[in-house]
Design brief:
alpha+beta, single chain
Amino acid sequence: MSLSLSNQQLVPEPGSNGGAGGHRGDQQGGRAERPEGRGALSAEEGAAAAGEAAPASERRRRRSDDPITALHYQLSTTRSEANLDVVVLVDDSGCLVAGAGAWPACEELAAYAPLLANPDAVQNAAVGSRIAALTAEVEVQSLAVAGGEVLLCGRGGTAERGASIARAAAGCLRILRAAA
């Protein structure tokens, strides 16, 4: 059976055996799905099927012009690649800007981030003990953006999480500077 791609679905071409074609996927980026057993379309084929030209060097699978969505995509990718439990971007007061991971864990890490970045500011023994426990499993990086400071924090993963956080920091800076 041969198939041709119409505007909205895969349809059998005239003269084929009349088997059912698969419907076009509703995935982001307009990637089409092939019928079962035929293999998935590559990103280039999917873009061509949607009538778009895909840059050959594009490494990102998801992108957004919305800064908050773009930050979430950046953090989600970092979390997955570094096997982190949670990764958050917070302002200098601990307010969550973007995060990836379980929401309660994101909120907790966001609240403690300023104290993790500046442990000398801790004046409460109970808070100090929680900061001490988190310090071993958290990587914190401070980023200067438009005269302010944001903190990127990742918890979990392996000892190599620092390199992943550094790459994420570069991505977050790019997104935040483009939005400014």
